[in-house]
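Run log // design_07
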């Protein structure tokens, strides 16, 4: 009898060890998988490089267009990369394994494994950084504050949170609190890239505070005073000064719009940018304003209507190189995964219900706010389209399209349509088909006299119509020339984007 008990005890212990080994192995493998995934997502070193670039832009050169595109590309790969599968299905084996592992760690005075807490913190961190990226600094700061109280104070995640929370606080305007948090980063993580960035941000904040005192003490003409306030990041005060001026120039109106944008008042800023992009008195400001529209529409708000208007403006302003850079940058920018994850009702997220509810409410509020901004802008954009300048001209009845080909032929036509790499030319007698590379020039003519008004109408593949004076073929693009008042404006359009060319009727 006693012998049977020993056998049963031995079998029971063996079974316990086998089950325990399986549970522990499963738990450790799960922990390893999540840690590898976390390393893929986080990219902390890259985040420090991106933050340094951003600090220089915010404090030293606010309108470095190309650098801003690069920062957006870089930031889109931080807390957003890797093959992210956040669904963690914890089985009873896994839960048992975690309890056993934590029991052993407790006996050896080590910190317990918290897989559920780790996933919650990762999701909150991703959401906070995504809000920081789109300049919703207050929302990001609120999330970072919660994370500061839940992370291990000596972890790399905590260093990231302390640093980026301080940056958001500085952007909100509370410089003293930002400096206090940055000093904590320097003392807690000496010699790290976090400490290096904290020292840089402290020096920039202190320099800004020193400049602010000097700007306010100097007696300056209001327009110069407003410009200095804006350059130093005192956006609220800059707007107050500009609002007191009776007839601000386009330069000052641009500073006001930029200040609104930096304060998160994107909708108001876009309204002003649309006006500035269409004014004729200062082309440089029109180009700058339209570049802001391209950046907002492509990177910060993803507004297709705004992108369409800004792209058309870029062609009219002959700023096609900037347009190409934005289009390339947009293709290289990764779409935010965290919003999709938190918006998916079927995602199996192993985090506590209260935190998940709070995150989903934040996502919903952010989405609703951006949708509201889009709706507000819709009317403004439509009005902007209607107000676009069109040249009033009287149309001769015997007007023709004069087409000069590289093979020496001159053809007078009624309309032109593009089909792949060929032009289909409609004449009074018979249609003519020729490769687009054979095209030399297109003009409008009346009899033997070439007309210098905007009689030609080019329609692109998106349906946008543009009145122009002359078209010249250049390798893979057409150079478009249009006349507005006494000014000749040039732009380029890729061959593949052409739909048809006709006459104004």
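design_07 sequence
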């Amino acid at each position: 009898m006693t012998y049977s008990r020993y056998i049963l005890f031995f079998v029971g212990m063996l079974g316990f060890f086998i089950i325990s080994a399986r549970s522990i192995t499963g738990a450790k493998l799960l922990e390893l998988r999540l840690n590898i995934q976390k390393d893929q997502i986080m990219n902390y070193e890259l985040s420090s490089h991106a933050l340094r670039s951003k600090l220089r832009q915010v404090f030293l050169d606010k309108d470095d267009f190309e650098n801003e595109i690069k920062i957006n590309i870089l930031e889109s790969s931080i807390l957003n990369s890797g093959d992210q599968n956040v669904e963690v299905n914890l089985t009873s084996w896994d839960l048992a394994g975690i309890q056993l592992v934590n029991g052993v760690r407790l006996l050896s005075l080590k910190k317990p494994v918290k897989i559920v807490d780790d996933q919650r913190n990762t999701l909150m961190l991703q959401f906070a950084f995504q809000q920081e990226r789109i300049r919703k600094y207050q929302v990001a700061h609120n999330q970072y504050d919660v994370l500061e109280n839940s992370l291990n104070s000596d972890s790399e995640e905590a260093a990231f949170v302390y640093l980026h929370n301080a940056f958001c606080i500085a952007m909100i305007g509370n410089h003293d609190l930002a400096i206090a948090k940055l000093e904590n980063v320097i003392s807690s993580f000496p010699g790290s890239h976090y400490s290096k960035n904290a020292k840089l941000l402290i020096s920039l904040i202190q320099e800004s505070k020193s400049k602010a005192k000097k700007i306010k003490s100097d007696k300056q003409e209001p327009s110069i005073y407003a410009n200095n306030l804006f350059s130093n990041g005192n956006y609220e005060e800059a707007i107050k000064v500009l609002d007191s001026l009776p007839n601000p120039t386009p330069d000052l109106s641009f500073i006001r719009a930029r200040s609104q944008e930096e304060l998160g008042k994107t909708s108001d800023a876009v309204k002003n940018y649309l006006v500035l992009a269409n004014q004729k008195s200062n082309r440089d400001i029109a180009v700058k304003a339209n570049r802001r529209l391209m950046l907002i529409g492509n990177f910060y708000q993803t507004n297709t209507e705004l992108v369409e208007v800004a792209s058309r403006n870029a062609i009219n302003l002959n700023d096609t190189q900037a347009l190409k850079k934005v289009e390339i940058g947009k293709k290289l920018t990764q779409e935010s995964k965290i919003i999709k994850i938190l918006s998916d009702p079927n995602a199996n997220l192993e985090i506590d219900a209260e935190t998940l509810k709070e995150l989903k409410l934040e996502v919903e509020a952010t989405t609703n706010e951006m949708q509201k901004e889009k709706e507000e802008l819709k009317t403004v954009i439509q009005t902007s389209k209607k107000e676009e300048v069109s040249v009033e001209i009287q149309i001769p009845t015997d007007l023709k399209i004069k087409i000069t080909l590289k093979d020496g032929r001159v053809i007078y036509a009624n309309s032109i349509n593009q089909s792949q790499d060929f032009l289909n030319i409609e004449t009074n007698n018979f249609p003519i088909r020729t490769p687009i590379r054979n095209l030399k020039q297109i003009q409008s003519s009346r009899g033997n006299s070439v007309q210098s008004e905007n009689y030609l109408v080019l329609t692109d593949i998106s349906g946008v119509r543009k009145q122009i004076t002359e078209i010249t073929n250049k390798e893979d693009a057409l150079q478009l020339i249009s006349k507005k008042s006494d000014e000749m404006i040039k732009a380029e359009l890729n061959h593949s984007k052409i739909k048809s060319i006709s006459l104004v009727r």
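The chain has a mean pLDDT of 77.
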